[in-house]
Amino acid sequence: MQLSEQEIIRREKLNKLVEMGINAFPAEEYKITDTTESIKQDFSESKQVKIAGRLMSRRIQGKASFAELQDSTGKIQVYFNRDEICTGEDKTLYNEVYKHLLDIGDIIGIGGDLFTTQVGEKTVLVKNFTLLTKSLRPLPQAKTDENGVIHDAFNDPELRYRQRYVDLTVNPHIKEIFVKRTKLFNAMRTFFNDAGYFEVETPILQSIPGGAAAKPFITHHNALDIPLYLRIANELYLKRLIVGGFDGVYEFSKNFRNEGMDRTHNPEFTAMEIYVAYKDYNWMMHFTEKLLEFCAGQVNGNAESTFGEHTINWKAPYPRVSMTEAIQKYTGFDITGKTEQELFVFAKSIGIDVNETMGKGKLIDEIFGEKCEGNFIQPTFITDYPIEMSPLTKKHRSKEGLTERFELMVCGKEIANAYSELNDPIDQRERFEAQMTLSERGDDEAMFIDQDFLRALEYGMPPTSGLGIGMDRLIMFLTDNASIQEVLFFPQMRPEKTVPQIELGEDEKVILEILNSQEEPFSLAEVKERSQLSGKKWDKASKTLTKNNLVKVEKIEDQVLMKLV
């Protein structure tokens, strides 16, 4: 393993701690009495506290030092004084351990008394400290120059998503997104549980990937010697439970779709689906808008959220617009009664990329997606989808060729999909067979025929309405994040590029040693002068370090600085 100069230095410090008999990774419990948040909320002078967290900054001034400790609830200032910590003649704990062997990023436990500084800062006077974990890699540290410009902030998206543990440490405000995410799940569970519905779990590995039109991931079960699919939806299993006698079931499910990735799609995502017996899609629309109004209040404290330039009002009720009306309004074209060929020609005429594998449902979906979706900013129910788009949905009770389905649009994106569920097994079989015909034409998202699900319907499923909500997309709208990667702890990433192994010569090591001798950057001229390298050696060594991203040279105003990356 190729170590950076700073990583080598930290390991050397670790060895010195071991030689002093200090365990840098102790196993015993460290009992904490307070957090940074509880201290600030219930502050009283001279109160004794015991806290733990990560050392994030420090300013050493001889025998005293102000530092900043960060735990899961925030940051607080701590004051180290040599004579408070080392009450006897032996000052090693402060002079050697604290000043020279601890680093920014180390996790320590602190016992001490509270006091307020002359400038009004709530502070912990350290009476004793314990090293709980030695950090062997340096944290990225942002610095603000005299003009207020921030340098070296950890804000590169790829690095942040790949190293979320660093992102959460140095950008603690990011944690609020995931706190709100959990609040959303808790709010939804509360709403469903209070309504009397039952949370369940269904299989992730499925013999048939049903319940949605999507391309699945395929795996193989060795013992059974059969192909299996990661689920694309949990719909058909939840409906089986309605057949089995449950009146209302819901599940938060991890779903997987082997399709493209972009700012609103991740191959692994979380959906919530709920099915309620003896209801229809009209009832579900009312239920959905009350649910989302409740969730917005629980997450953000009111029924509004900001998303980019838009303020979204989640307060019920929401407008209802049929798909036919939406397409006619934004394209001037009436899809009622149109043949597949007529839809194909029209889609081509307005510049939509379509092909011969697409049936009527796919063509209508493309027209709506390209020309209509983006116009719906405030929560709006798009209703009454054509039958070709909805193979699991009941035919509309009064409108020929349509189904009792709605999708909820917000800021031009779908976040919810719901039906009056198809419970006629004969009709359902015909719909599945129509999907198989599309599959034979080359549509790799067409649904499979699930014979066991058809058998379940033949035993009888009561009239039912179902709802699916994309949880990741919903939390994007509630936290003002345009990228799905921002609301997933660990989004899917391309394989990490391997760092090339480099051999450092003595000249490169001399430069690194100078730069490591203080936290602040040096002027380029000073590093060159202190290295005592000839012009040729300096050019070669500095070029090697910058080329391999070990040091950075930058100009700030009239000064050229060199610093460690």
Provide the descriptors you would attach to this structure in a database record.
alpha+beta; five-stranded mixed β-barrel
Description:
- With 565 residues, the protein is α+β, with helices and mostly antiparallel strands.
- The chain is built from 18 helices and 23 strands.
- An eight-stranded mixed sheet has the order 8-12-13-20-19-18-17-16, sandwiched between helices. A five-stranded mixed β-barrel has the order 1-2-3-5-4.
- Strand 6 and strand 7 (150-151) form a beta hairpin.
- Helix 7 (175-194) packs across helix 15 (471-479), helix 8 (235-243) runs parallel beside helix 14 (451-459) and helix 11 packs parallel to helix 12 (360-371).
- The longest helix is centred in the N-terminal third of the chain and has 20 residues, at 175-194.
- The protein is elongated.
- It starts with a helix and ends with a strand.
- The relative contact order is 0.09.
- The mean pLDDT is 93.
